[in-house]
Amino acid sequence: MDPRRLIAERMGRIDSSGIRKVFDLGRNIEHPIDLSIGQPDFPVPEAVKLKAAEAINTDQNRYTVTQGLQELREAVLAMEKERVGIGHDSVLITSGVSGGLLLAFMALINPGDTVAIPDPYFVMYKHLCRLLGGQPLYVDTYPDFQLTAERLEAAGAAQAKILLLNSPNNPTGQVMPDDSLRKIADWARDNDVFIITDEIYYSFTYDSEYSSIARYTEDLMLLNGLSKSSAMTGWRLGWAIGPRAIVAEMTKLQQFSFVCAPSIAQHAALAALSVDPEPYVKAYKAKRDLAYEGLKGKFELPKPSGAFYAFVRAPGDDGEAFVKLAIENRCLIIPGNVFSERNSHFRLSFAAEDETIRAGTELLCSLV
Known about the structure:
It is built from 12 helices and 12 strands. The chain is of the alpha/beta class. Helix 2 (46-57) runs antiparallel to helix 9 (263-272), helix 4 (96-108) packs across helix 8 and helix 10 (278-295) runs parallel beside helix 12.
């Protein structure tokens, strides 16, 4: 039997991540200059490690209830009410923001439903949408990578069932200003569009106070987690807060899929919520400046104002060709078409040692 005949038709709607392909290439390079990976280079805080070890050593290793530890849900809700003033009280602890996104999409998207996705976008958004039979509607935000109500209207996004927001943004590093968020909330309310806001990078905002669209509407689902603020990328711990009816359906789906978020990570999260991220934010602002100053003389790019990425225009508007050249010279970056319907840019991550950032930007500039 040819096993390929058994594969579900839906699998043809998605492709392997271009990021993984770069990682695979990197394994064959000795001492690469790695500016590709999207995770913090600082270790998990000691208090979080100790809390996880305590949970293991006191045999807190069983399943939790599907919706997550009550103490953690209460702590997360209190944090988000203080941070952004969200009005909802229903919380689901998820296996990372990615797990929350999958559950939300499964609960909300019918085949044929339109999902408005600002372009550039996090790689997972369009693939999960297509996997479930949804129709991505890409809203172009080039060249400044700022979403506005006017751009949504011009793209025909009023027909969408869902609008995805991600601020600070992966891959562009841009942060949406408060005034734009307020206008988008009004636009979404007028057009009956539900919002899913992915705020996993909220801690890493460098030039202004962070603002969330949750301040302006309750017609939304907020997704957040600890992968970036506490470097817990492999611990798979996040949460979803939103309308009770939708969170109930997501909880039902989690019961028959993930069962619950990792129990040890849930216990550790109670300590992670008390960690002050400010020293990391200060360090990453300096890394942002180092990367931007190293690139701006040779490349066209808006200065990143959050997260830890720069989205850079490639020579000749050919991101794939420039990334191939960079990899041939031992520098790992990601082609922009992994995150976009265009191929004109590349993504660089400054979540790296300062020496690596210097070496990488110098090399990239030498290739222009």
